[in-house]
Q: What sequence folds into this?
């Protein structure tokens, strides 16, 4: 596969490491009420869609950017690539 | 031997003669021959034995689809089994042997299996060798394995080089027949970057095997002209002898180029084969079509071939497989074979299904002697040495289904064609798209190129195609001849017969996927290129369904078998994985150190002294000398991560379970890192060098992974934290200096004061050594001794170890390896890899109190869940044998006295075992249920694999200096 890195342009997927569902960005607050249940869902409940999937890739053999790649799991078509940091900020994550 | 079956014509160079041997017999051929064409020219039709029944077999094809003519090519270390004689290019001195026969090809003892065939039907192994279950591994499988299989490996190291390469193009064209050449000419003339790849050594595809005219010259001649024009275009790369083995994603294709297989030995510095990764913007599949047989009784005798192959041998290689031939066909293309053979002076009899005729049987044990023909209810025997069978042509859809796209049934040609858009950017053309005439091939090839050009925004040139035949392809479906008593072969490589398919139907294995697995249809090295469609057509007939209703299996990469060496490329031997050397490696080598692989690193395991005969002697000495005076150990392999920024402290509080905000500048702290599920992930010490500057250490094994996770936390979880990371593992050579004389030794090297007051326990400092070299010192201890770690830029690591050894002479300093390191950490009860096993919590390790619940660190929440806080769970314990002379064994399980060694009674296990020279006994760490409450208990340590049982006492894991007085000294 070829991942169109937002900073570096098209790069071979061999340069990247795959992590999984980009939902991992939405980590619950560990000090909040009901954190155990929230973390259980966060860590263990995942959709496994046959189709479009937003997932985390790490450019380990490159600039070390974490990316959110929108990929069709059936065709491997990649329709969007974003910096994970931008996605995290857009979801309200900060410090 | 003479080339008795060589006739006029063909694209071979008769001015040169090549000598070769097959089964030790010398033959002659010409450049341009394959091994198969040369053997056929010499009258040799028998080339191998079948896989299961050891039936005598000859080639049925003239290409890469060949199921039968598999030989061991070359000798010695270069011997390659299962090579298809039909694609092995002849060279002078070639030597080949038949395989899967003993003692000889014409008399094979294992052909007894042919006589037992009524027992050896599909599902035989599955149903017969089921009972008793224990017999499968010990008795049945070895016997079956010995009897099965094809060629044998040389078991010698491959002397050839293999390489990998990367290519980029606008348009990749797979196949250089009329469609591929027309596409390449269009795209090449338009200035596109083109790669034209063909598995054959001679481009032209079927044009080389036909007698039609193209553009007023022979088809082969036109192909030569087209290739010549293309070869002068700088934007076109011609890749003969190159098979596209796989369609990967996003326009990437895998290809194997056989650079040197047509030579006796590769030219100096040249690889034997290259695995190419081709990045294309568009691709055209112009891989042609493969003919399929019609199944009838005894249709597998040497001399019975696909009709198109018989024609190819005559037209391209000037070989008449027999002077008398029969053609059994259900379509017009078969008639073309008959006409071409007649023109070459071969006596031909046509058996046309469409006229109610069929071949019902054949005779000739080691080669075809005659066929039995049924015509108008009458049986007749026709003596012949060759039979060409044509059941129609299957477009080569293989590569087009590599993304799991299903081929589509095309009734007009009674065959599957590639589905539209199965692979983005790939279009099929010519026979691969089911367009069989030369005219249609040229036109669809050019059209596919034009479409690609306009997709890519390139100018499309005016179409300029030569005149070519546009003959009809009339076909009447005919899959098998009914009513035969004997066996009719469908898949010749895996010996699957009509009867096997019928049996599969009878046993209700009617879906194509079941049919395949039950009978092994299409599961041989040829992936059923000549067999699959026939097999499923038979199943369709049995179930009364249409072929499209029955479905089709799809093809997987690689298109043809690939040598392991090609996939490995240069990654073999020392190049298989990089070897990382520590800064003290050369010094340690000079001392005769024994090294151990730790990940990619080579670390000194122990450093024997003259006179030491066992590793224990060396390790005991290293431990005793360190604890008595001072020892030095290279710890460079630990991961080092530089962490800087205004939020660095807050960041560390997120990634470590224990508190870091309170760590003062100039101090180190042990850090415990959890996974988000609460399991302990890694540990190490982190030092605060400045207000906003830290250096973290990780375990050797997790150096890369921890860094990755920190980047994840920084970018994905805490995107606004002001924190920067960089791995400095390679930047610093780091040594542990431990023992009562550690400070005295280091003070001789360090330029600054490192007294207890200047550098107290857990202190750290940026210093200089040896009169000005920048360095870092950390007063931390893994051994339990007064200890320091000292770091200098890596390039000074070698000088530093030599200086420390020289300066340490007055203290009788010792350099110790990983074994002594392990002994000392077990004596101190420190956890390492065996305890950090990915299943254990901080509580299990006795570190439960370190997990701060006042802050939200990774893993904190789930480390507190029910299963992780089980009061009856495992706890880290120390273990001693009751009789100190007895040896403990790692992996042994704890059992109560009298308890049977079964899982229900299991209390835990020994994780790490060492011999402690201080205690004069074997000691261990282990995880024991309710371990804290069992101090002083006596249990059994049982190892069923090592067959050992030792009575043990449960003790504190801190065997040595439990109060930690030494390290503060």
A:
């Amino acid at each position: 596969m070829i991942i169109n890195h937002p900073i570096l342009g098209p790069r071979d997927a061999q340069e990247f490491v795959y992590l999984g569902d980009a939902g991992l960005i939405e980590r619950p607050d560990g000090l909040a009420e009901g954190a155990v249940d929230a973390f259980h869902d966060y860590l263990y409940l995942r959709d496994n869609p046959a189709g479009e999937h937003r997932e985390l890739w790490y450019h380990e053999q490159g600039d070390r950017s974490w990316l959110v790649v929108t990929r069709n799991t059936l065709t491997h078509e990649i329709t969007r690539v974003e910096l994970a940091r931008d996605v995290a900020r857009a979801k309200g994550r900060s410090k | 031997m003479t080339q008795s079956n060589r006739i006029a014509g063909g694209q071979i160079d008769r001015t040169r003669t090549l000598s070769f041997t097959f089964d030790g017999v010398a033959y002659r051929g010409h450049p341009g021959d394959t091994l198969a064409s040369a053997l056929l020219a010499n009258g040799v039709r028998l080339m191998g034995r079948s896989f299961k029944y050891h039936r005598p077999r000859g080639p049925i094809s003239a290409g890469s689809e060949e199921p039968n003519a598999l030989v061991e090519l070359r000798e010695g270390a270069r011997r390659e089994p299962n090579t298809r004689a039909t694609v092995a290019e002849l060279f002078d001195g070639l030597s080949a042997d038949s395989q899967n026969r003993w003692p000889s090809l014409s008399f094979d003892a294992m052909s007894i299996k042919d006589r037992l065939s009524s027992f050896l039907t599909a599902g035989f192994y599955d149903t017969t060798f089921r009972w008793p279950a224990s017999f499968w591994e010990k008795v049945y499988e070895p016997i079956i394995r010995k009897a099965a299989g094809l060629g044998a490996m040389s078991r010698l190291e491959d002397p050839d080089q293999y390489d990998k390469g990367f290519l980029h193009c606008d348009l990749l064209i797979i196949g250089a027949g009329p469609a591929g050449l027309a596409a390449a000419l269009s795209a090449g003339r338009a200035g596109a970057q083109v790669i034209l790849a063909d598995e054959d050594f001679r481009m032209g595809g079927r044009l080389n095997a036909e007698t039609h005219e193209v553009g007023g010259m022979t088809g082969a001649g036109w192909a030569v002209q087209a290739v010549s024009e293309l070869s002068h275009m700088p934007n076109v790369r011609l890749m003969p002898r190159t098979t596209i083995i796989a369609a990967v994603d996003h326009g990437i294709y895998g290809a194997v180029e056989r650079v040197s297989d047509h030579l006796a030995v590769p030219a100096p510095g040249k690889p034997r084969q290259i695995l190419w990764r081709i990045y294309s913007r568009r691709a055209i599949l112009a891989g042609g079509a493969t003919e399929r047989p019609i199944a009838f009784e005894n249709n597998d005798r040497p001399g019975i071939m696909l009709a198109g192959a018989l024609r190819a041998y005559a037209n391209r290689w000037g070989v008449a497989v027999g002077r008398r031939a029969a053609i059994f066909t259900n379509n017009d293309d078969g008639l073309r074979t008959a006409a071409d053979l007649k023109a070459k002076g071969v006596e031909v009899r046509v058996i046309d299904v469409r006229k109610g005729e069929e071949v019902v049987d054949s005779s000739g044990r080691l080669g075809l002697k005659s066929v039995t023909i049924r015509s108008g209810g009458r049986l007749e025997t026709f003596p012949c040495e060759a039979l060409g069978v044509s059941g129609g042509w299957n477009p080569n859809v293989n590569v087009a289904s590599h993304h799991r796209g299903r081929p589509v049934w095309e009734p007009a040609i009674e065959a599957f064609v590639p589905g539209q858009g199965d692979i983005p950017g790939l279009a099929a053309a010519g026979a691969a798209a089911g367009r069989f005439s030369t005219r249609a091939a040229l036109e669809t090839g050019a059209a596919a190129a034009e479409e690609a050009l306009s997709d890519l925004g390139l100018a499309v040139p005016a179409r300029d195609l030569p005149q070519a035949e546009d003959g009809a392809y009339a076909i009447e479906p005919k899959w098998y001849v009914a009513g035969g008593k004997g066996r009719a072969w469908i898949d010749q490589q895996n010996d699957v017969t009509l009867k096997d398919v019928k049996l599969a139907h009878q046993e209700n294995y009617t879906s194509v996927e079941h049919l395949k697995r039950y009978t092994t249809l299409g599961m041989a090295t040829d992936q059923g290129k000549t067999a699959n469609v026939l097999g499923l057509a038979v199943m369709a007939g049995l179930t009364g369904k249409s072929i499209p209703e029955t479905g089709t299996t799809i093809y997987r990469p690689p298109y043809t078998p690939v040598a392991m060496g090609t996939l490995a490329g240069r990654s073999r031997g020392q190049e298989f994985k990089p070897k990382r050397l520590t800064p003290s490696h050369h010094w340690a080598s000079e001392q005769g150190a024994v090294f151990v692989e730790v990940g990619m690193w080579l670390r000194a395991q122990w450093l024997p002294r003259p006179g030491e005969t066992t590793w224990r002697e060396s390790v005991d000495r290293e431990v005793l000398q360190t604890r008595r005076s001072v020892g030095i150990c290279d710890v460079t392999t630990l991961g080092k991560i530089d962490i800087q920024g205004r939020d660095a402290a807050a960041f560390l509080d997120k990634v470590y379970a224990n508190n870091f905000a309170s760590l003062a500048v100039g101090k180190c702290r042990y850090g415990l890192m959890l996974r988000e599920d609460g399991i302990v992930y890694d540990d190490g010490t982190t030092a605060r060098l400045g207000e906003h500057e830290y250096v973290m250490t990780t375990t050797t094994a997790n150096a890369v992974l921890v860094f990755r996770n920190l980047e994840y936390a920084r970018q994905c979880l805490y995107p606004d934290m002001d924190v920067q990371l960089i791995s400095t593992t390679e930047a610093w050579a780091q040594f542990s200096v431990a023992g009562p004389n550690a400070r005295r030794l280091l003070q001789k090297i360090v330029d600054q004061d490192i007294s207890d007051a200047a550098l107290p326990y857990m202190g750290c400092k940026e210093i200089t050594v040896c009169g000005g070299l920048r360095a870092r010192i950390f007063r931390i201890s893994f051994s339990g001794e007064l200890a320091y770690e000292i770091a200098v830029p890596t390039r000074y690591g070698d000088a530093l170890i030599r200086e420390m050894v020289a300066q340490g002479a007055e203290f009788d300093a010792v350099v110790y390896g990983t074994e002594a390191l392990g002994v000392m950490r077990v004596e101190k009860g420190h956890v390492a890899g065996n305890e950090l096993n990915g299943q254990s919590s901080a509580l299990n390790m006795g570190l439960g109190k370190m997990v701060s619940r006042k802050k939200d660190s990774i893993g904190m929440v789930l480390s507190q869940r029910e299963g992780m806080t089980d009061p009856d769970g495992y706890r880290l314990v120390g273990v001693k044998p009751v009789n100190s002379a007895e040896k403990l064994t790692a992996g042994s399980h704890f059992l109560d006295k009298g308890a049977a060694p079964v899982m229900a009674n299991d209390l835990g296990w020994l994780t790490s075992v060492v011999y402690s020279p201080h205690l004069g006994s074997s000691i261990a760490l282990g995880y024991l249920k309710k371990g804290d409450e069992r101090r002083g208990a006596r249990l059994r340590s049982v190892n069923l694999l090592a067959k050992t049982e030792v009575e043990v006492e449960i003790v504190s894991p801190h065997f040595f200096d439990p109060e930690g007085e030494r390290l503060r000294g």
Q: What stands out?
A: Chain B has 22 helices and 49 strands. Chain B has six domains: 1-158, 162-289+395-455, 293-391, 488-568, 638-728+843-864, 871-969.
